[in-house]
Amino acid sequence: MRAIQVKEYVQGPQDLTVTTLPTLTPSPTSYLIAIHATATNFFDLLQIRGKYQHQPPLPWISGSEFSGVVVSTPSSSSSSSSSSSPPPPPKFQIGDKVFGAAQGGYATHICAPESALRAVPAGWDFLDAAGLMVTAPTSYAALVTRAGVKKGDYVLVHAAAGGVGLAAVQVAKAFGAVVIATAGSARKLEVARGFGADYGVDYRKKGWEEEVKRLTPGGRGADVVFDPVGMVTPSLKCTAWNGRILVIGFAAGEIEKVAMNRVLLKNVSVVGLHWGMYAREEPDTVEEVWNGLFDLMQMGKFKGTVYKDEEFVGLESVPRALGMLGRRETWGKVVVRVPQDGQTKL
């Protein structure tokens, strides 16, 4: 197999190289997947530099999100049951198309437990499916589970042209909300509108908060703010009475210190979301979220968010894809197609 293996921490993605390794041998409870597409994430940039909160022991294969085809299935069940009944058969069979997330996505093959995999939705290709596992449930759980988004809500989505932002735009629209998208360029605002945003606001411009208010009934402000950037403080200026501010992440690079008197004066709820903990703390909610997402996909209300201004093919293109992601030169999910042996890169 071929993979981007990190033997020592690097300065940046330009230092990553592709190497040939023995094909992985899955554990008795894991699947072996032949990867056909792999998605990039900001945390990959941190991890290769040793700056992420979850650092596997060296050496390790970089990347996380992927889609592909099942090559081998588990030989035993991962469920812990004291029952004498035989274990359930594997959910996926050899040849099934799956997507998921596990350490080692920048490779031609990966091992993953059943809990880390989902079936590729009908009509979806590998590229679109590879970017689903992180952004889609994060946006759905935030807006639906945590904020209770509903018809008529005015939803302000920051960094709306990013992967999680475009997912949020689609989920909010599917539930009948009016979406105000923010982004830092005309091209990115155009992309957000293409995915359903009703309005676009450039948050580089001074006074953008007043523009948001003018777009809402009576200038009341947004009912829900979706914030993966770290913009709670300025957003409070354009949040409605009883508004809900969703804290998704801190892409700006700094963790905010918010003046809580402003939260009190507008009766605002500041709501966090740690999607990665739901599998441990609320596993039933994980299934509810995915079922809701698959329903939206089936109804044609949620589509893939792959960056299409440029194509990335082959593991050798991962450093360039990560570099463009880090410089914020892209929109949506930046996904790399991974040809298998015998497949052309064209």
Summarize the structure.
With 346 residues, the protein is of the alpha/beta class.
Could you please describe the fold and organization of this structure?
The protein has helices spanning about 40-45, 125-130, 135-145, 165-175, 185-195, 210-215, 230-235, 260-265, 280, 285-300, 320-325, and strands at about 1-5, 5, 20, 30-40, 60, 65-70, 95-100, 110-115, 115-120, 155, 180-185, 200, 220-225, 240-245, 270, 335. It is α/β, with parallel strands linked by helices. The chain has eleven helices and 16 strands. Helix 3 (about 135-145) crosses helix 4 (about 165-175) and helix 3 crosses helix 10 (about 285-300). The mean pLDDT is about 95.
Distance between the termini: 20 Å
What overall form do the CA principal axes indicate? globular
Name the helicity range: 25-40%
Secondary-structure-derived class: alpha/beta
Low-confidence stretches: none
Largest sheet: 6 strands, antiparallel
How many helices in DSSP terms?
Answer: 11
